[in-house]
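Q&A FORM
Asked by: J.P.
Topic: structure of P2Y purinoceptor 4

PROVIDED:
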Amino acid sequence: MNSFSKDGVSGNFSFPATTPIPVASGETNKSCRFNEEFKYILLPVSYSLVCFLGLVLNSVALWMFITKMRPWNTSTVYMFHLALSDTLYVLSLPMLIYYYANRSHWPFGVFLCKVVRFLFYANLYCSILFLTCISVHRYLGICHPIRTLSLVKPRHAHLVCAVVWIAVIVCLVPKLIFVTTSQRDNDTLCHDTSSPDNFNNYVTYNSVVMMLLFILPFLVIVVCYCLMARTLCQPRTGLSQSQQSASSRKKSIKLIIVVLVVFAICFVPFHITRSLYYAYRVLDAECKSLNIVNFAYKITRPLASMNSCLDPVLYFLAGDHYRSKLLRVFTRKTPQSSSDAYAQKNPDAQVNKESKL
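REPLIED BY: S.T.
REPLY: Here is the structure written out as tokens.
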């Protein structure tokens, strides 16, 4: 790999357009330059938008879940933890906004550098896993409704969420060790990966985490959605149109669309470009190729952060329970109907309507 010097590039390292990337003697790219002027505008602006929208949307969601949605059903439990993860992340963005607006100078110390980088990946992988939980639960409700009614309860969802938090924290503890700061002239850089000496080890660790927390959950989601689509496309003989719960089927389709859009915009491009960037560095790719991949990787970082803004769309579209409650708060409509009241008091009574929040 490129044996970058102490001031070499690592993850989100920033170099002015005229700054060479130091590499070891004997390597092809002895004076490779990264043109990263674009990110001093792109990242502060995009992170500011994500911070504002994410904080507003997720604060409203948390308030709704805590004050208006009790008792929680299983889907609401997962969505509450998803909103909590997004909120913790957007609260860390002001420091990153300052960092990039200040042209990659980090004045907040090593500890906060580790915390900010940790929260980015914690939110990333918690979001993926909670979306996986929501998808698996919807699959069970659509394809195995009777079994789900008797076996899946909100207390089980709380236990699953605890496992998710613990698993993500354990997997990301090495991240706290790898991440550090370094000096470049008069600037302090907050590394997104590791010091150059540990980069090979970091790439190996990152590959394992990506397999466990991204690729496997994504495959689970794809399988669940394929099985759900097959079930939803089959006519339910012997049932009237009302009994088939057309609205529930539409909400399941909306869930599939929203989750796949989140993956297509936020998660898949980020993991592909990051993997290519790491691979090109390890393989000592030519400077022009490394610049192109680095540019693509930096572009997808704010896209990955956008999941904090897109997740609330899931709460609104996945079921009219959350939507109707939210609209009632802002429009001051009359109290809920008796059927809605019954569903609120008996969150597991209608498994096919678990998407109602």
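FOLLOW-UP: The chain has a mean pLDDT of 82.
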